[in-house]
Write a structure and sequence with these properties.
CATH superfamily of the largest domain: P-loop containing nucleotide triphosphate hydrolases
Helix content: 40-55%
Number of strands: 11
Oligomer: single chain
Number of helices: 22
Radius of gyration: 36 Å
CATH topology of the largest domain: Rossmann fold
Shape: flat
Strand content: 5-15%
CATH class of the largest domain: Alpha Beta
Length: 514
């Protein structure tokens, strides 16, 4: 037998209860195959709470070094009633570093009559020096099937008729914690009496029925906006809270995605077996990408609901937004198909539709949208122009670019970058170079900072499917792009500069090829 044990795992999975049973077994006078008999004097005293040799300490409220020193002063004294003195330290990770250091030597070499039983929900917070001196056991959360079966047994023993779907609803609400499931069962039984139905559980706990969640999902996937608003309105009328609706729907999305990626694995689902057939049907209607998108929107919404005065309206808008996602995807696909058609015609030597004569890759680009000043209007100099060699598409307003909303969507996780990109009004693509027209110089300077520029270039590369080099300019300020000069033009520039420096006059010129 070890001198120190560590029981770790999520809350409500039986760590402290196991420690108490273990302590009883260590001091039982008539152990049967390692199990306490519950009939001897020691077992009866432990059950009554009068046994002096089992001490339970809450480390959350006794976490200082002085508390550990007080415990150490008692260790040399032998047990009074049993064979071992057992110290159960609950939430041991709450001890201070100084308290852990004081406990370390005691854990390594305790008296022969002392056994430590440590329990924690966060073993990663315990120093390695303490972990290495304990025999560790990890407790796992229970599955809904296990909790449901156990609740049925408890209900039968208590004379309560518990419906299967009611037991499953309690198990799903407990999220793997058997202690929570038992507390919920007691709460619901006090409300419903001797017969506990699923309707009673939903009424007490404020849950949506599985049929309601499936109906909500069906309305989203089929873009049935009228039914979607009506279902949400009915939920508000029954007193359902928006946060709970979001959490329940996220659980539904989890099961739907699991079934979509793992067909036939109904044992992995949290929904009751009666809903498996409908879940499988709905899983066949949607893609994993769309499920992820809906989960992402609702996951972000859950944190926002606490800070709004109209959570019901915000939730309705979110559901209507995700219900319309399919139309947006179809529109983007149609736009992409049109652009591919135009590109094929360009590569074939034809003139793409929508391009007038004289337009195309070598034509002059308008860098600003209608109503904004373009570089051409802001000033030109001899030998300079706005023509961007190798431009891939026309520079135009961001509102007319089908891929710009995707860039803004990707930037949502970085609020500062998203705010800066909101100031972009015009875009021009020139080969691998992409120029952003901004309304404020502050935005230009912020985007051109190395860290921000790298982030924006990564976002643009993900959307455009190719690496890009980012440049910025401010709409309303004079800016021109120089046309690359040929060899003769460069030679003339050198000659002109030499004449200027030496005050000379060109009398005659003989070209090298004459």
């Amino acid at each position: 037998m070890a001198h120190a044990y560590l029981f770790s795992g999520p809350r409500g999975t039986g760590k402290t209860s196991t420690a108490k049973i273990f302590a009883k077994a260590l001091n039982c006078l008539a152990v049967v195959d390692g199990e306490p008999c519950n009939g001897c004097a020691n077992c009866q005293a432990i059950n009554a709470g009068t046994f002096l040799d089992i001490l339970e300490i809450d480390a959350a409220s006794h976490r200082r070094i002085d508390d550990v020193r007080e415990l150490q002063e008692r260790l040399p004294f032998g047990p009074v009633q049993g064979r071992y003195k057992v110290y159960i330290i609950d939430e041991v990770h709450m001890l201070t570093p100084e308290a852990f250091n004081a406990l370390l030597k005691t854990l390594e070499e305790p008296p022969a009559h002392v056994v430590f039983l440590l329990a924690t929900t966060e073993p990663q917070k315990i120093p390695q020096t303490v972990l290495s001196r304990c025999l560790r056991f990890d407790f796992r959360p229970l599955s809904p099937q296990e909790i449901s079966a156990y609740l049925q047994g408890v209900a039968r023993a208590a004379g309560v008729e518990l419906e299967d779907r009611a037991a499953w609803a309690l198990a799903r609400m407990a999220k793997g914690a058997l202690r929570d499931a038992l507390s919920l069962l007691e709460e619901c039984a006090a409300y419903a009496g001797q017969r506990l139905r699923e309707e009673d559980v939903r009424q007490v706990l404020g849950l949506l029925a599985e049929e309601e969640l499936l109906a909500l999902g069906e309305a989203v996937w089929q873009e049935d906006y009228v039914r979607l608003v009506r279902l949400l309105a009915e939920a508000w009328e029954r007193g359902k809270q928006p946060v709970e609706v979001v959490r329940e729907f996220l659980s539904y999305l989890r099961d739907l995605l699991t079934l979509r990626l793992c067909p036939g694995r109904f044992d992995l689902l949290h929904f009751s077996p009666s809903a498996h057939a409908e879940l499988a049907r709905q899983a066949s209607l949607v893609t994993p990408a769309r499920i992820w998108r809906v989960a992402e929107v609702l996951g972000e919404l859950e944190g926002q609901l606490r800070f709004t005065g109209q959570p019901e309206v915000l939730l309705e808008l979110a559901f209507l937004e995700v219900a319309g996602e399919r139309e947006t995807e179809a529109d983007r696909l149609a736009t992409l198909e049109k652009r591919l058609e135009r590109l094929e015609k360009t590569l074939a030597g034809g003139v793409p539709e929508g391009w007038a004569a004289g337009e195309g890759p070598s034509a002059t680009r308008t860098l600003a949208p209608a109503g904004e000043a373009s570089p051409r209007a802001l000033g030109e100099e001899a030998g300079e122009s706005e023509i961007l060699p190798g431009a891939a598409e026309e520079g135009r307003s961001v509102e007319s670019l089908p891929w710009w909303p995707q860039v803004l969507e990707l930037a949502r996780r970085k609020p500062k970058v998203r705010a800066l990109l909101g100031g972009v009004k015009a875009v021009v693509v020139a080969g691998d170079r992409l120029r952003l027209g901004l309304t404020a110089r502050f935005h230009k300077e912020e985007i051109e900072k190395p860290a921000t520029k790298t982030v924006v270039e990564e976002l643009l590369a993900r959307v455009l499917k190719r690496p890009v080099s980012l440049e910025c300019f401010v709409l309303g300020e004079a800016e021109v792009v120089k046309q690359p000069k040929g060899a003769k033009e460069k030679e003339q520039d050198v000659l002109d500069e030499a004449l200027r420096l030496f005050g000379g006059t060109l009398m005659d010129r003989i070209d090298g090829d004459s």
